[in-house]
Amino acid sequence: MATPGDEVAAGATVVDVSSESSDSFAASRAVDGDLATEWSSAGDGDDAWITVDLGRPVDVAGLTLRSRAMSDGTSVVETLTVTVDGGRTYGPSQGGTAVVVDEVDLTGRVLRFDAERTTGGTTGAAEIQVFAAP
Q1: Three-state secondary structure call for residue 62
Q2: At 106, which helix (H) or strand (E)?
Q3: Are 67 and 124 in contact (CB under 8 A)?
Q4: Which CATH code is given to the segment(s) 13-132?
Q5: Residues 73, 52: Cα–Cα separation, whole Å
Q6: Could you tell me the pTM of the whole model?
Q7: Residue 12 carries which DSSP code?
Q8: Are 87 and 81 contacting, i.e. CB atoms less than 8 angstroms apart?
Q9: How far apart are CA 108 and CA 58, in angstroms?
Q10: What one-character DSSP code corresponds to residue 11?
């Protein structure tokens, strides 16, 4: 799948999170560039959220949250919103376990990803990606 630009969220700093189910599922795992690790909330369902700091303002062309999922179908973030620098909110956007890039045109440094609709349970993310405009 073609992406709209370079991925800049890998290695971002997690500045706040709704919860973490354990150290093994820490929020930092959502931005570590590794789909084999994931952030899991402690059962937040539709109330799960994570805030990341990209380290600098970025002209963003695309965003994706690749959701974690349990074998029984729970824990999937189906739709989400993204709030930029504590101001404007974008979305709802499609989540899910497949990579779906939501093309956007925004500039920001601190992005808060909020689960809007989920299948409940220990929602979270296998990976969050932010693509800088080329």
Answers
A1: strand
A2: strand 102-118
A3: yes
A4: 2.60.120.260
A5: 26
A6: 0.94
A7: P
A8: no
A9: 5
A10: T
